[in-house]
C-alpha cells in the first residue's frame, strides 16, 4: 500500500487489490479514529479526509487479511429481466437467458464502492460465468433503473445517462434522492440481492 497526499487534510491510500481496499475501509470504519471527516472508497484506493496520521497508524498494525466483520445492511431490489443485452449475455456465457437470470438472482452482492453517478454502486459477487466486457460502443442513453454488468461488477444506473454496461433488466427502485436521508440507497459494505419479478 502507498499513501499520497491530497491537499492539506487528506491522503489517498493506493491498495494492491479491491479486497485490500475494502478491508482498509472496514478497518477504519470499525475503529473510528479521531479526526476523520470522510472516507471515500474506490476500486483499489481509499481517500481519507482528516485524521490521516491516526488512520495510517491504525492500518500499519491492522491485519487486512482478516478485517473486522460488521453487520451489513441488506437491500433487495425487484428487477424485470427484460434488458436489451440479456440474449447477448446468455450467448457469451454459453447458457440460456433463464439461466442468466437464475445466476444473477441467486448471488449475494456487496457494494464495494460508489461513483460514476450519484447513487451508483459497484457491486461485487457476480458469478464468474457472467463476467463480461463492456459493450464495444457505449449507448448514448441508458434509462434510469437499468441493471447491468461489466467486468467483475454488476450495478444499477440511478438516472438516465450514457453507459456501456450490458443491460440485464430494470428496477423501479429509487437509487438516489437528494431530499432523502441518506440520499443514496447504496453505501459501501451493504449487501444487495436481486429478485426476479415478471
UniProtKB/TrEMBL annotation:
Keywords, sorted A to Z: ATP-binding, Hydrolase, Nucleotide-binding
Recorded coiled-coil stretches: none
Pfam families: CT_C_D (PF02682)
InterPro entries in the record: CT_C_D (IPR003833), Cyclophilin-like_dom_sf (IPR029000), PxpB (IPR010016)
Domain Carboxyltransferase: 1-186
GO MF terms held by the record: 5-oxoprolinase (ATP-hydrolyzing) activity
E.C. designation(s): 3.5.2.9
Superkingdom of origin: Bacteria
NCBIfam families associated with the record: 5-oxoprolinase subunit PxpB
Name the UniProt record assigns to this protein: 5-oxoprolinase subunit PxpB
Natural source organism: Amycolatopsis plumensis
Gene name of the encoded protein: pxpB
